[in-house]
Amino acid sequence: MKFINLTRSNEIGANSYFLDFGQDGRIILDAGLHPKIEGELATPNFQSLEDYPVDCLLISHAHHDHTGSLPLFLRKYPKLKVFLSEPTYYLTSPLLHNSVEVMLKQRAELQIPEYPLYTHKEIDRCTERWQACHINKEWSFNGYPNPKHEPLTFQFYPSGHILGAVGIRIFHRGRRIFYTGDVSFKEQTLMLPADFPQNGIDVLIIESTRGAQEMVKGKTRETEIQRLVESIEATFDRGGSVLIPVFALGKTQEILTTLFLEQQAGRLRKCPIFIGGLSRSFSEIYDKLASRSLRRYPGFKILDTIAPIVINGKKPMKIQPSKGEIYLVTSGMMNENTISNVLAQKFLPNEKHSIFFVGYCDPDSPAGQLLATPRGNLVVLNKSSKPQPVICEVDQFDLTSHALREDILSYIQFLEPRTCILVHGDPAALDWFKQKLEEESPQIQLIIPPPGKLIEI
Questions:
Q1: Maximum distance among all Cα pairs of the chain, rounded to whole angstroms
Q2: CA–CA separation, 185 vs 161, rounded Å?
Q3: Model confidence pLDDT, tens digit, residues 151-169
Q4: Is residue 18 within 8 Å of residue 49, measured between CB atoms?
């Protein structure tokens, strides 16, 4: 097998990887778009593929850093087949359409002439070449289940990250390659933990997102939920409102359900909870698939049961937070001109209010900048706005949908593949895994693939 890391640097960015099995087939794993870079540099490195045909593309899950360049691959390879799980099939289309709208705004605001990188019509056309595949069933690369005498096949396994997220096992003439995508080995509020192969893997391609984050003794998802609920209650007691910046896909549905269950248990008072229009769209898909997707609480309908208030069509500048409200709005990184960024500037000067983060925040994002700013100091959340003092309460709660580094290390060492390829991590995360595996599991061939370079496995 030949392997090319199509990301432009070793980091969490435009995740995409090329696997070459010669005449038996050539595969792309994921087709991401970098969340922090604008223009064509946000895409995977297509120049690395100039000499290669590609037969099909396998998608692990619907997050933008794994699907945002999908229309570009389909433009480059008009006959390309795309295979993904049923939930990912439904979630990816609205995500890509929203991406077009964001790029159109950025074209006007940031003067990026190549935006949008693709159009709404292009997305609608390319969905015709997507095929939803059942998990835990072997498929041929022609799209047929239960193939016989095929040299190259694949199978999806639930990864626990978000709805529809899968790891992908590829069978090639007796060899087995497994790509985890983004994974959670622990149960979340809605999502069940990953159910991955436990043996027989020759090459493991695995994420390393949290490699630089040490596990804190005594901290669990349950203790973090309890701390979040207590902090919300304290905010309400002093007459304030709570802003929780979240990603529209995955994190919104998890936190919304978590808050509802805490209210049902009497640990959190009933209160208005606001979400954005894109979050509602993704929640509708969660509800549509409630009875036929792998998740906790089968049949549980988020929108019907919880009835959040949708901020739809209202300009964020007109919103005035009142006592005892929760704003569960995008974006999770508080990117400029998003609802969470605009609202945060209203929350900052009021000591009664709180801004709580419930997931990863890039240090260079507005969310990361705010978390790094001590209370009373100045922060800039939007380049067009003046610096503001941080007067409100700001805190972070670890309710991640990514596996802890210790859990990933344990899986690698338990599986003991011949070769382990580390992806989807920044240099510090990759270095931690490299050190641990070289010290504790020297029998495993470890590869940190340099971007754009052909590697023979």
A1: 68
A2: 9
A3: 999 999 999 999 999 999 9
A4: yes
pLDDT at 172 over 70: yes
Residue 373, amino acid:
T
What are the tens digits of pLDDT across the range 84-111?
A: 999 999 999 999 999 999 999 889 888 8
Q: What is the pLDDT averaged over residues 270-293?
A: 95
Long-range contacts of 428-436 (CB under 8 A, 24+ apart): 428/211, 428/212, 429/208, 429/209, 429/210, 429/211, 429/212, 429/213, 429/405, 430/10, 430/208, 430/211, 431/211, 432/211, 432/212, 432/405, 433/208, 433/211, 433/405, 433/408, 433/409, 436/409
Report d(CA 200, CA 204) in Å as an integer. 10
Rounded distance between C-alpha atoms, residue 89 and residue 410, angstroms:
31
Instruction: Return the HEC string of 193-229.
Output: CCCCCCCCCCEEEEECCCCCCCCCCCCCHHHHHHHHH
- Please give the torsion angle defined by the CA atoms of residues 158, 60, 104 and 49, in that order, rounded to the nearest 10 degrees: 180
Rounded to 10°, the helix 427-440/405-415 angle is 40
Distance separating alpha carbons of residues 179 and 108, to the nearest angstrom: 38
Tokens of 58: 């396998």
Distance CA 249, CA 331 (A): 10
Q: Which residues pair with 356 in a beta bridge?
A: 395
Mind listing the pLDDT tens digit for each residue in 28-54?
999 999 988 889 999 999 999 987 999
* Residues near 252 by beta carbon (within 8 Å), at least 6 away in sequence: 246, 275, 279, 282, 283, 328, 330
Token pair for 116: 């949008």
Please tell me the distance from the alpha carbon of residue 178 to that of residue 297, in angstroms, as a whole number. 29
**Residue 159's closest CA among 19, 60, 14, 290?**
60
Dist CA 258 CA 237 (whole Å): 20
Across 161-165, 337-341, 372-376, least confident range: 337-341
d(C-alpha 328, C-alpha 330), whole Å: 7
Q: What's the pTM value of the predicted model, to 2 decimals?
A: 0.96
Return the pLDDT at 160.
97
Res. 252 pLDDT band, cuts 50 70 90: very high
Q: At 313, is the pLDDT very low, low, confident or very high (cuts 50, 70, 90)?
A: low
Q: Which two tokens stand for residue 149?
A: 């005498």
